[in-house]
Design brief:
4-stranded antiparallel β-sheet, alpha/beta, Rossmann fold, 289 residues, 29% strand, globular, 7-stranded mixed β-sheet, 11 strands
Length: 289
């Protein structure tokens, strides 16, 4: 079997990289709805030893307890929830166990199939759909979860659309819980590295793995780019995940424009105080006006 040299693999990866990468333009987004990638990412969601896609079960339980406290504080008698981009439904299942009725929406087929297989109660309902286009009844939810950085995963225009649509399906006074990474967290995540791998999340054969994170200040956008070159046939594959970074004032203004009033800002999903200098997350509680 012919095996390509590391130098050849790296040269091919660098040639494919291009220059002056602008996230959402020169780098796209993972095809989350691709059946194979969806299945591979589901395995990452369900791995309790890491938090690349979902947090470990014990942490999810802590955060659902915090969500319950928020519902009692800011949305009296809230019982019907929407879990936006729910993945395999880990938060939805925990909240349903606590007595809430939860609708989860995601367009990863493997994640939704898994979530549906776990359903043992009529309090859970999962929809395979894009959150930007899903049709939900007007004013049918008491609260919405849009967490673990998912709001960052859309362009500014798409996030505005999603917030407007969420407002339409939320009753007046209902809640929106956003968990986002601030712009500074993305600014600090910039690097370039490569290594040879026997297998990885995207491949089962030996390959060069070139990984980089880039920040584009004019648009406050970030790209995580993976370039892989198969060691036997030289086949090159690229994947990227893009995010938008927001300052607190910017997201508060966007919420006001889309029918939401900010109630409280936290530093994580357990209720830590937000610190603009040190908090990795900004957790925003907003009410539908």
């Amino acid at each position: 079997m012919r095996v390509l040299s590391v130098e050849t693999l790296l040269a091919k990866a660098l040639a494919a990289r291009g220059n002056n990468i602008v996230p959402f333009k020169d780098a796209g987004d993972l095809p989350w709805d691709d059946p194979l990638i969806s299945q591979r990412l589901l395995a990452v969601h369900l791995d309790p030893t890491q938090d690349l896609a979902s947090r470990p079960p014990q942490q999810i339980r802590k955060e659902c307890a915090f969500i319950e406290r928020l519902l009692h504080l800011y949305a009296e008698n809230a019982t019907v929830l929407c879990d936006m981009t729910c993945g395999p439904g880990l938060y939805a299942a925990e909240l349903a166990h606590k007595g809430y009725r939860v609708t989860g929406v995601d367009f990863s087929p493997a994640s939704i199939a898994y979530a549906r297989q776990q359903v043992q109660t009529d309090r859970l309902h999962f929809i395979l759909s894009d959150i930007r286009t899903v049709e939900l009844p007007a004013e049918s939810f008491d609260a919405n979860l849009f967490i673990y950085g998912q709001p960052n995963a859309f362009t500014r225009d798409d996030l505005q659309l999603i917030l407007e649509r969420a407002r339409a399906w939320t009753r007046p006074g209902g809640l929106l819980l956003l968990e986002m990474m601030p712009a500074d967290a993305f600014r600090q995540e910039v690097y370039h590295r490569w290594e040879m791998k026997e297998t990885s999340i995207f491949a089962d054969t030996p390959h060069l793995w070139m990984e980089e994170k880039v920040w584009y200040e004019p648009d406050k956008t970030h790209a995580h780019i993976i370039t892989m070159v198969d060691q036997t046939d030289g086949r090159l594959t690229k994947y990227s995940v893009c995010h938008t970074g927001y300052e607190v004032e910017e997201i508060e203004q966007l919420l006001a424009q889309t029918g939401w009033r900010v109630q409280r800002l936290y530093g994580d999903m357990t209720g830590e105080t937000f610190d603009s200098q040190t908090s990795e997350w900004q957790v925003i509680v907003a009410a539908a006006v």
